[in-house]
Amino acid sequence: MSLTQVRSSLSRLLKSMCGIFMVLLIVLLYAGAACAELVSLAEGLRLAAENSRFVRMAAQDENIAAADIVTARAKLLPSINASFSHTDLSDQPAAIFGALSVPMSQRDFVSYSLNIQQTLYDFRANASRYEAGKIGLEIKKMDSRRVRNFVAVDFALAYLDLLESEKILKVAENEVRRLEAHLKDAGSLYDEGVITKNDLLQAEVRLSDARQRLLSAGTSREFNASRLNSALVRPLKSNISVADMDGPAPLISEIAVEQAWLLAEQQRPELQIADAALRSLDLEKTAKKADYYPRLYARGGYDYTENRYQVHAGNWSLTLGLGINLFNGGTTGAELAKIDFSKAKLLEQRNRLADEIRLEVEKYMLNAKTAREKIAVSAGAVQQAEENLRINKARYEEGAGTATEVLDAVSLLTAAETNYYRARYEAEKAEAAVVYAIGSDLLEVYR
C-alpha cells in the first residue's frame, strides 16, 4: 500500500471516528428519555387537566360566581339589624311649661334596637337577579370545561409532536448509519482503485449534510419534550418518555360533515355560554323593569331608650310599606335599551361564532382525510424505497452501479420514511383537532 493510500485510509478512519462520536453524543443527549417514567396519552391528558394553571384559574372563577349567587340570594332573605349605644349629654334635656322646667330625658342613658325588614313583592327583581347569578355559575362551569378541553388538545398536539420528532430523529440516525456504511464501502473500493476520489468526496459531503440534519432533529426532539413538560407543569428539562399510540386514531372525522356541525352546535361550550348569557340578559331585563313598579315590604322591630321620665322606655313596631321611584331622569329606560343592544350584539356574536366553528370543523376534517390518504401513499413508497436502496447497493458493490445512484437511493428512502411519519402524526393531530372542534371531551375519547 502506498503512502498516499495510507494517509487516505487514516483520514477516513478519523472522519469515521468523528461521526461515531457525534452519533454517541446524540444518543447520550436523548437517551435520558428512555430512563424516565413512561407517560401514555391518556395519563398525560389527565395530568395536564389536573395540573394546568389555566384550569385552576377557571376553578377560581367558579368560586367567585358561587359567591355572587350567595350575594344575590341575600336580597330574598330578611334583613336583620341591631344597634346599641350609650349617650352622655352636657346638659339634661328639659322643656318649659310656663314657669316650670320639666326634665324630658336623663343626662346619660343607653339605647338599643332590633329591626327586621323583608321585601314581600318587588315584581321579581331580586328573584331574577338570583336566577341570573345561578346562570352565571353555569357559564363559569361551561368555561371551565372549555378551558380543560383546550388544555387537553394542546397537550395532545404537543404529545404527538414529540412522537413525530422522535420518529424523525430515528430516520435521521438511520440515514447517517446508511451513509457511513456506504462511505466505508466507497473507501474500500477507492483503496482498491475501483472508484475515483470524486465518489469518495461525494459520500463524505452527503454524510456531513445528514449529520447536520441529525443534530437539527435532536434539537427539535428536545424542544418538543420541553413543550410537553410545560403542558404538564413540570420543569422544562425533566426527562420524559412518551408511549406511542396504542392503535389507530378515533376516526371521528369519518362522520359526515353535517353531523359534525350538529354535534358542535350541541357540544361546544362557547355556544352554550352564549345561549346562557342570552338567558341571563333576559333575567337582567326583568329585574331592571321592576324599577318602574312599587316595592312592597314589611318591617318590624323593638326600640329601647333608657329614660325614667317616659312612660314606655321600649316600643315594639310593625310597618307595612310601599315604595316606588317616581322619577330618576330616564336611567331605567336607558339601561333597558342598553340591555336590548347588548342582546342584539350577543346574538350576532353567537351566529358569527357558530359559522367559525363550522369552518373549523370542516378544516380539520379535510386535514384528517388528506393525511390518511398521504399515509396510504407513503407507506407503499417506503417499501419501494427500501427495495430500490437494496438493488442499488448490490449493483454498486458489484461495480455495475454508481455512487450517485446509491446516495440518491438513501435520500429517497429518508424522504419516504419522513413523509410517512409526518403523514401519520398529521392524521393523529387532525383527529384530535376534530374531537376538540365538535366539543367532545378528549379525556373521554382517548381513555
Describe it for me?
This protein has 447 residues and is of the alpha+beta class. The protein has one domain: Outer membrane efflux proteins (OEP) (Up-down Bundle). Helix content is 68%, strand content 13%. The strands form three sheets. A four-stranded antiparallel beta sheet has the order 2-5-7-8, with no helix packed on it. The longest helix is centred in the middle third of the chain and has 67 residues. The two termini are 66 Å apart.
Largest sheet: 4 strands, antiparallel
SS-based structural class? alpha+beta
Can you name the CATH architecture?
Up-down Bundle
- Helix share of residues? 55-70%
Total DSSP E strands: 8
CATH class: Mainly Alpha
Oligomer: single chain
Number of domains: 1
Helix and strand succession?
A: HHEHHEEEEHHEHHEEHHH
Rg for CA atoms: 40 Å
Report the sheet-strand fraction: 5-15%
- Taking strands numbered 1, 2, ... along the chain, how are they ordered across the largest sheet? 2-5-7-8
Low-confidence stretches: 25-30
**Which word captures the global form?**
elongated
* Mean pLDDT across every amino acid position: 88
CATH topology: Outer membrane efflux proteins (OEP)
Span between N and C termini?
Answer: 66 Å
Number of helices: 11
CATH H-level superfamily: Outer membrane efflux proteins (OEP)
